């Protein structure tokens, strides 16, 4: 029965194809005979309904030939640029470099491997940076940001005014650490005459000199923090060798003593206070 039904269906297939060809031929001939009517532009415009803008349509760029649109576009570009460079600015021109170096050396001196984690070290260094740089940020807000938002000064003036408090901070730290020779070093490599006053030092020359000064000061403070824990390691290793326990790692025994000493003297508070007090005003 199934074979008979399949044979009957196969017989009907040529008939269906013939009917389809006839219908398509008739439709083509009717289309050729029908006249093509082109509506006028006015009627098409009046009859065509206004299509609402699609939410997925491409956004239109502002007309940069107009002054106000160009200013708005430039404000957006500058804002995105500042946001992308904010981590670099935070590292290069603030107290973050010195603080994070000392905290990292402190963790290494304790021998606690990854405790505290990097997120806690960086977070603590960042908030300490906000405290140290509070007056500088306040000056930037009062002298540059608020006048610019109020429209009393333009962008170029606001940027030049905002750089001045940061330059004052970097100059004060270099003078406090007695690292004026770093400024002369970069002036020599920039083929510039050695400046006699800070006004003669360019910002591009001042920033690497400040970073070099901060690295030097940070490692010096880290050495002072590292020294007590090194003494504990030497004492523990001497005791173990005298007792004949040469196969026992000294770091395994000295770690609890270093943690106990650090907690008893309230080490975190002392280190934080020394770090924030090391920045000259």
Task: Supply database-style keywords.
281 residues; 0% strand; mainly alpha; elongated
What does this structure look like?
This protein has 281 residues and is an all-alpha fold. It has a domain at 93-277. Helices cover 75% and strands 0% of the residues. It is built from 11 helices and no strands. The chain has helices at 2-33, 41-47, 67-92, 96-110, 118-132, 134-150, 155-176, 180-189, 203-242, 250-264, 267-277. Helix 7 runs parallel beside helix 9 (203-242) and helix 8 (180-189) packs across helix 9 (203-242). The longest helix has 40 residues, at 203-242. It is elongated. The chain starts with a helix and ends with a helix. Mean pLDDT is 75; it is low at 34-50 and 54-58.
Mean pLDDT: 75
User: How many DSSP helices?
Assistant: 11
Q: What is the share of helical residues?
A: over 70%
The proportion of residues in beta strands is under 5%
State the end-to-end CA separation: 103 Å
User: What is the oligomer described by this structure?
Assistant: single chain
Quantity of strands, as a count: 0
Biggest sheet character: none
Shape type: elongated
Run of helices and strands: HHHHHHHHHHH
Low-confidence stretches: 34-50, 54-58
Class computed from helices, strands and strand pairing: mainly alpha
Using the CA coordinates, give the radius of gyration.
38 Å
């Amino acid at each position: 029965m199934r074979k008979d039904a399949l044979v009957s269906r196969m017989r009907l297939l040529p008939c269906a194809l013939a009917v389809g060809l006839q219908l398509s031929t008739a439709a083509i001939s009717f289309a050729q005979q029908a006249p093509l009517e082109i509506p006028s532009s006015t009627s098409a415009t009046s009859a065509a309904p206004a299509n609402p803008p699609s939410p997925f349509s491409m956004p239109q760029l502002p007309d940069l030939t107009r002054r106000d649109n160009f200013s708005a576009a430039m404000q957006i570009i500058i804002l995105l640029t500042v946001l992308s460079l904010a981590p670099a600015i935070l590292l290069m021109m603030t107290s973050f470099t010195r603080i994070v170096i000392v905290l990292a050396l402190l963790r290494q001196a304790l021998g606690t491997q990854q405790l505290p984690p990097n997120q806690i070290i960086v977070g603590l260094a960042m908030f300490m940076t906000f405290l140290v740089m509070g007056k500088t940020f306040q000056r930037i807000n009062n002298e540059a940001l608020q006048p610019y938002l109020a429209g009393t000064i333009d962008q170029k003036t606001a940027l030049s005014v905002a750089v001045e408090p940061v330059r004052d901070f970097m100059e004060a730290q270099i003078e406090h650490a007695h690292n004026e020779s770093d400024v002369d070093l970069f002036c020599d490599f920039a083929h510039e005459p050695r400046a006699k006053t800070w006004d003669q030092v360019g910002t591009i020359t001042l920033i690497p000199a400040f970073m070099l000064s901060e690295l030097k000061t940070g490692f010096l403070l880290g050495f002072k923090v590292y020294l007590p824990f090194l003494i504990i390691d030497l004492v523990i290793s001497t005791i173990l060798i005298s007792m004949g326990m040469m196969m026992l790692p000294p770091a395994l025994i000295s770690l609890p003593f270093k943690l106990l000493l650090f907690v008893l003297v309230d080490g975190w508070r002392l280190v934080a206070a020394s770090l924030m007090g090391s920045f000259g005003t």
